[in-house]
């Protein structure tokens, strides 16, 4: 899978499946410094990923500050040839001042055994 550099950040394309609805997101940042995989609520609302009364809401911290997110188990998350079924993601506002659909974190990258080649801008 090709990594696209934009404004100094590595972007990839990620696909989500939730309750038989599919969504491809083009503006997902590859972030080995993020423990979790987070998606923008605005980017995934149209496939039913929204806050429900039984969802757990928690606060996460990062370089940009803190944010409240809720967790959901999705049917599938795929990044190129890498795919995880029944994977837990977080959903938040992700209002960082630039266009972003989500962040692929180390929890996904480690589980799929991804190798990131920054010289060639590829994940394999």
What do these coordinates show?
Helices cover 9% and strands 52% of the residues. Strands 2-3-8-4-7-6 form a 6-stranded mixed beta barrel. Strands 9-10 form a two-stranded antiparallel sheet. The longest helix has 7 residues, at 106-112. The protein has 124 residues and is mainly beta. It has helices at 41-44, 106-112; strands at residues 4-6, 9-18, 21-30, 38-40, 57-62, 65-79, 82-92, 102-104, 116-117, 122-123. It has one domain (4-123): Cathepsin D, subunit A, domain 1, CATH 2.40.70.10. The protein has 2 helices and 10 strands. The chain is globular, with a radius of gyration of 14 Å. The mean pLDDT is 94.
Task: Write the topology of this structure.
Elements: E1 4-6, E2 9-18, E3 21-30, E4 38-40, H1 41-44, E5 57-62, E6 65-79, E7 82-92, E8 102-104, H2 106-112, E9 116-117, E10 122-123
Parallel strand pairs: 3-8, 4-7
Antiparallel strand pairs: 1-2, 2-3, 2-6, 4-8, 5-6, 6-7, 9-10
Strand order of the biggest β-sheet = 2-3-8-4-7-6
Looking at the structure, the CATH topology is Cathepsin D, subunit A, domain 1
Q: How do the helices and strands follow one another from N- to C-terminus?
A: EEEEHEEEEHEE
CATH architecture verdict: Beta Barrel
Separation of termini? 7 Å
Features:
single chain; 124 residues; six-stranded mixed beta barrel; Cathepsin D, subunit A, domain 1
Summarize the structure in short.
This protein is mainly beta and 124 residues long. The chain has 2 helices and 10 strands, in the order ββββαββββαββ. A hairpin with a 4-residue loop joins strand 9 (116-117) and strand 10 (122-123).
């Amino acid at each position: 899978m090709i990594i696209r550099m934009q404004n100094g950040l590595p972007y990839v394309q990620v696909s989500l499946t939730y309750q038989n609805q599919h969504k491809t997101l083009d503006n997902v940042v590859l972030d080995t410094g993020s423990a979790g995989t987070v998606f923008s609520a605005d980017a995934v609302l149209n496939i039913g990923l929204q806050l429900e009364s039984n969802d757990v809401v928690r606060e996460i911290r990062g370089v940009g500050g803190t944010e409240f997110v809720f967790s959901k188990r999705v049917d599938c998350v795929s990044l190129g040839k890498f795919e995880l079924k029944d994977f837990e993601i977080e959903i938040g506002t992700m209002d960082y001042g630039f266009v972003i659909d989500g962040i692929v974190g180390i929890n996904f990258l480690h589980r799929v055994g991804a190798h990131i080649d920054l010289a060639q801008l590829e994940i394999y």
